[in-house]
Amino acid sequence: MIHVPNKQLRRHDRTAPGEPTTTVHQAGPGAQGLALAYVHVPQDAPKGGRRTRPPFTLSGPNGEPLSSVRSVGDGVYEVCGGDGAPIGRITRRGGRTLPWPRRVRWSVQPAQGGAPLAGEVGTRKAWTVFVLISPLYFVCWAVMSAQGALWLLLGEKGEAKKEAAWEMEPPTWTRWRSADGPEVAIEYQTGRKYRLAAPRLDHRLAYAQAVLHVWDRA
After folding, report:
1. Cys-Cys crosslink for 86: which of 79, 111, 151, 155, Cβ 3.0 to 4.6 Å?
2. What pTM was estimated for this model as a whole?
3. Mean of the per-residue pLDDT values for the chain?
4. Residue 15 and residue 30: Cα distance in Å, rounded?
């Protein structure tokens, strides 16, 4: 299990010089919180968007270079090892909510052969429920926004922030597997935590995919 905090990725331009943007931690039992890799995003890199994240590198716990990731356009990212040799390609295909959900789809293609892995964000059942209850959510959101505005007029900024903070997140459960087998190589449920099946995928590619995936949630 690994954990990738996402808030720092959104604010990469505020990272102190020389400090990593965020850290990939071990989240499993025994060594929880142990740093596995450091993510470095250039401070002056443009914000980009979900299809063109800025380039970033990953280094090991002792500062050794692990990989570099850069966008090559249209949601495609090239991943190279610390020596500059290609180790794989990660692709993001966009989704939509209306008129009916089309889930965001991620794929990981190792450079040295092996079956590509693909994962769709959220299950069909979860998206169906999300679409059905969305109208109710928007009604609740409008009511809470009005309450927040009222608290703000009364000078209660703390209460206004509480009202504004409530939101309904879309389904996030994602499982990456190859087309020729049911075994899951990477699984994300919630909490910015990922379960990795070590023999299935180069850990450097897995870290890069986890960073890009959690960046979508930033």
Report:
1. 111
2. 0.80
3. 82
4. 30
DSSP letter at 50 equals T
Reported as half-sphere exposure (CB side, CA atoms, 13 A), residue 74 has a value of 0
pLDDT digits (tens, 9 = 90+) for 153-169: 666 666 545 545 555 56
Assigned token pair, 182? 């049911």
Give residue 78's identity as a one-letter amino acid code.
E
Cβ count near 206 (within 10 Å): 23
Give residue 122's region: left, alpha or beta (phi > 0; psi -120 to 50): left
The length of the chain is: 218
Collect all residues with Cβ–Cβ distance below 8 Å to 8 and sequence separation of at least 6.
15, 21, 22
Any residues with CB less than 8 A from the CB of 74 and at least 6 apart, and which? 51
Residue 218's nearest CA partner among 180, 172, 182 is: 172
Helices 124-153, 157-165: inter-axial angle, 10-degree rounding? 170
Alpha-carbon span 26 to 193, nearest angstrom:
9
pLDDT single digits (tens) 20-72? 999 999 987 777 789 999 999 998 888 888 889 999 999 999 999 999 999 99
